[in-house]
Design a protein that fits this description.
The structure is a single chain. The protein is α/β, with parallel strands linked by helices and 304 residues long. It has a domain at 2-161 and 191-224 and 271-287: NAD(P)-binding Rossmann-like Domain (Rossmann fold), CATH 3.40.50. The protein has helices spanning 11-20, 47-57, 78-99, 131-146, 166-176, 193-209, 230-243, 276-282, 289-303, and strands spanning 2-6, 25-30, 40-41, 61-64, 103-108, 150-155, 158-159, 179-183, 187-188, 191-192, 218-221, 228-229, 252-256. The strands form 4 sheets. A 7-stranded parallel sheet has the order 3-2-1-4-5-6-11, with helices on both faces. A two-stranded parallel sheet has the order 7-10. A two-stranded parallel sheet has the order 8-13. The radius of gyration is 19 Å and the shape is globular. The two termini are 36 Å apart. The mean pLDDT is 93.
Length: 304
């Protein structure tokens, strides 16, 4: 089958492409692709161009990994954020419904206010604190309202060996400084992009096999198993990075409050996701932080 993968040049898209290729021809598109990239360059916010692309490709499956993920910049780029995070999935879902094509879509832990004091389940009330969370919530609601066959995966704190993410930022800063201040009053579950891509592949396999059991449709949470603060996450990165030779020394990490840094967007203090529903549906347990981070950093080491 032909598979449309949006956001193919992003950190999740790069992990999804080879996994989806086992199911058919993957047509990857990305608004930031360069001529040297495999994905086709496509302005995904251009509705007319998107309609032409869908009519040309006529995918049997759509996997939407495209998003405006710059949380602070979204406060000033509200219109652009909603175009990519809400209007794009709405259009993809409408086409999927009209053409009987399933859709895999991704959302975020930032749809929650962060005041629950316990891991969030799929049915918990949403109350995003920033434009990014608002736009992603609007996108997941548009997908649900379309009536198309879909799975929306809410995830959190995604990292990989490519792109812009907390892991790569910490490794860079560790090479430059002897001491770092890291926020310790925000908690979540860091998720390796490859693990999220693996779960996405299992979703597609269930659809293709038409397996018995819980119908795989609707909203699910997926994040790797370990809940930490950003400060705790940084500690894991430094220990593994130093052991693998990616940094010469482990800098001193000082825990600070969120108010130590001026940021345009307010983050939830506690956005840990409960993944019980998808674990039961797919019969698996999420990988832990240490094993996933080690595999990710080993990949970075081998590429250097």
């Amino acid at each position: 089958m032909r598979i449309l993968l949006t956001g193919a040049a992003g950190q999740l898209g790069r992990e999804l492409a080879p996994r989806l290729a086992q199911y058919g021809e993957v047509v990857g598109v990305d608004r930031s692709a360069s001529p040297a990239d495999t994905p086709l360059k496509q302005d995904l916010a251009d509705a007319t161009a998107l309609d032409r692309l869908l009519a040309k490709i006529r995918p049997a499956l759509i996997v939407n990994a495209a998003a405006h993920t710059a949380v602070d910049r979204a406060e000033e780029e509200r219109e652009q954020s909603f175009r990519l995070n809400a209007e794009l999935p709405a259009r993809l879902a409408a086409w999927a419904q009209a053409n009987d094509a399933p859709l895999v879509h991704y959302s975020t832990d930032y749809v929650f206010a962060g005041d629950a004091g316990r891991p969030y389940v799929e049915d918990d009330p949403t109350a995003p604190l920033n434009v990014y969370g608002e736009s992603k919530l609007a996108g997941e609601q548009a997908v649900a309202d379309s009536g198309c066959r879909h799975v929306t995966l809410r995830t959190s704190w995604v990292y990989s060996g490519h792109g812009h993410n907390f892991v790569l930022t910490m490794l860079r800063l560790a090479a430059e400084r002897d001491r770092l201040e890291v926020v310790d009053d925000q908690h979540g579950r860091p998720t390796w992009a490859r693990n999220l891509a693996r779960v996405s592949g299992w979703v597609v396999e269930r659809w293709r096999a038409g397996a018995a059991g819980e119908p795989l449709s609707g909203l699910y949470h997926y994040a790797d198993a370990t809940a930490v603060s950003w400060h705790g996450f940084a500690g894991h990165i430094m220990r593994v990075g130093h052991r693998l030779g990616l940094i010469d020394r482990e800098p001193e990490l000082s825990p600070v409050g969120s108010d130590r840094f001026v940021q345009a967007a307010t983050r939830p203090a506690y956005s840990v996701l409960d993944t019980t529903r998808i674990e039961r549906a797919l019969d698996f347990h999420p990988a832990g932080l240490d094993e996933s981070l080690e595999a990710c950093l080993e990949g970075i080491r081998l590429e250097r």
